[in-house]
Design a protein that fits this description.
Blueprint (H helix, E strand, L loop, with lengths): L2 H23 L23 H7 L1 H7 L3 H8 L11 H4 L3 H5 L20 H9 L14 H4 L4 H4 L17 H5 L4 H6 L35 H6 L11 E2 L1 H5 L22 H4 L33 E2 L10
Antiparallel strand pairs: 1-2
Helix pairs in contact: 2-3
Length: 315
């Protein structure tokens, strides 16, 4: 007999011997050796996800297809996530024993008409999502106005490709409340939000910041400079409104004038330059400042100039 066949035979005999040892010596049936360890017992008051599925099968089926559902129901990372549905909705045994019903048994439904205080509902989400972008949620404009996490996020089914948003895109989600700003993005001159090249969260952090208007940077200018770095300077000749705020001349959400300008030129410039070497009646026949690019036909470097002779922003 060859050495290879001898080794195979010894391996087979060893396997049979181990099986017989489990049956005869240990007194344990062979199939029981392959069984998994029993699942950890549920805490008092909890019914388990399968109990929830018995009544809420449609919701359960949708939820288990989401990112959170796949994690909580199939690959929990800790004891909290292993509770499945009850991780967020709370202990469900009393709810199930009472035959169900919205709000019965102290269950939190997260529905729009849920009587559970918004602060308590949000605390459930913040129990896990409390770092990074949500550091300044407490005291933020959205928190102080009782905006619920579930107003912007939808967890029970997949609606968006990222962040489990309540609508398909960020602009549609924000547009549920900020109707005026969304309407401005539909104007002829606009940021590329409609084209999907940026989102509201490119400039704003809806979960809270220490700056006005929930801006991600320290000021409006710093926010604009993240993309428009060539306007940052420093310049030898600085244009005062540029230093103060880009929003003095531009409306970042959209405008019917070129370059997101709030007012058409030359009227935009004349809001400040009411008395200068140029007459203030721009529509007189003798005036040429309304032609071409208006004021910036000559004052081309209007954001600032580094030319020694550029005090008038002409160079």
């Amino acid at each position: 007999m060859s050495r290879k066949r001898t080794l195979r035979l010894l391996g087979f005999v060893g396997g049979v011997g181990a099986l017989l040892l489990g049956v005869v010596v240990l007194g344990v049936p062979a199939p029981a050796l392959a069984q998994k360890a029993p699942a950890a017992a549920l805490p008092a008051g909890y019914a388990g996800a399968e109990t929830c599925k018995g009544c809420h099968e449609d919701q359960f089926t949708k939820f288990e297809q989401t990112k959170m559902g796949r994690l909580f129901l199939k690959h929990p990372r800790n004891s909290t996530e292993s509770l499945g549905c009850e991780s967020c909705h709370g202990p469900g045994k009393a709810h199930a024993d009472a035959g169900g019903g919205k709000g019965v048994g102290g269950i939190v439904s997260f529905a729009k008409d849920d009587t559970t205080p918004v602060e308590r509902r949000n605390a459930t989400c913040l129990g896990c999502h409390q770092k990074s972008a949500r550091l300044f949620w407490q005291g933020s404009p959205h928190e102080s106005r009782d905006v619920a996490c579930t107003s912007c996020h939808k967890l029970m089914e997949t609606t968006s490709s990222r962040a489990q948003l309540a609508r398909a895109t960020v602009i549609e989600t924000c547009g549920q409340c900020h109707l005026q700003k969304r309407a401005q993005t539909m104007r002829s001159s606009h940021m590329p939000l409609r084209e999907g090249k940026m989102t509201c969260t490119a400039c704003h952090n809806p979960h809270g910041t220490v700056t006005p208007a929930l801006l991600k940077e320290n000021s409006a200018n710093e926010t604009c400079f993240t993309c428009h770095a060539e306007k940052r300077g420093p310049f030898l000749w600085e244009h005062a409104p540029v230093v103060e705020s880009c929003a003095t001349c531009h409306d970042p959400h959209g405008s019917n004038h070129e370059n997101l300008l709030k007012v058409a030129k030359p009227r935009l410039c004349q809001q400040c330059h009411v008395e200068s070497r140029h007459p203030t009646s721009p529509y007189s026949r003798r005036e040429k400042q309304v032609l071409g690019r208006s004021c910036v036909s000559c004052h081309a470097n209007i954001h600032g100039s580094n030319h020694p002779s550029g005090h008038a922003f002409t160079r």
